[in-house]
Automatic annotation (TrEMBL):
Its EC number is 4.2.1.96. Keywords: Lyase. InterPro entries: PCD_sf, Pterin_deHydtase. GO terms for biological process: tetrahydrobiopterin biosynthetic process. It catalyses: (4aS,6R)-4a-hydroxy-L-erythro-5,6,7,8-tetrahydrobiopterin = (6R)-L-erythro-6,7-dihydrobiopterin + H2O. It is an enzyme of class 4 (lyase). GO terms for molecular function: 4-alpha-hydroxytetrahydrobiopterin dehydratase activity. This is 4a-hydroxytetrahydrobiopterin dehydratase. It holds the Pfam family Pterin_4a. Belongs to the pterin-4-alpha-carbinolamine dehydratase family.
Length: 103
């Protein structure tokens, strides 16, 4: 499978149905906000996201607002959403679950 191929509208809808809390923005990006118990946990999550992004060589837009972290994903060189974005979203959700399970 070519992870950099643009998703069709149907493929995107199918994938979003499997992702909890991720929303399409203008059909070009997906976004999700995570809320943590404290600022330190939010920053710890961002650091883990950074590590995953480096490994995948696919970097999200990240906004930190105290306990809220918002991630936005798109595949710039493909001009929209690809399986790489979906795979990244799944990985980030896994990290959030891992951090919250430790509490």
């Amino acid at each position: 499978m070519d992870r950099n191929r643009l998703l069709t509208e149907d493929e995107l809808a199918e994938q979003l149905a499997l992702l909890k809390g991720w929303k399409a923005e203008e059909g070009k990006r997906i976004a999700k906000s995570y809320v943590f118990p404290a600022f330190a946990e939010a920053v710890a999550f961002v650091n883990r996201v950074a590590g995953i992004a480096e490994t995948m060589n696919h970097h999200p837009f990240i906004a930190i607002d105290y306990r809220r972290v918002t991630l936005r994903l798109t595949t710039w060189h493909s001009g929209g959403l690809t399986h790489l974005d979906i795979d990244s979203a799944k990985a980030y959700d896994g990290e959030q679950n891992h951090l919250l399970d430790k509490e």
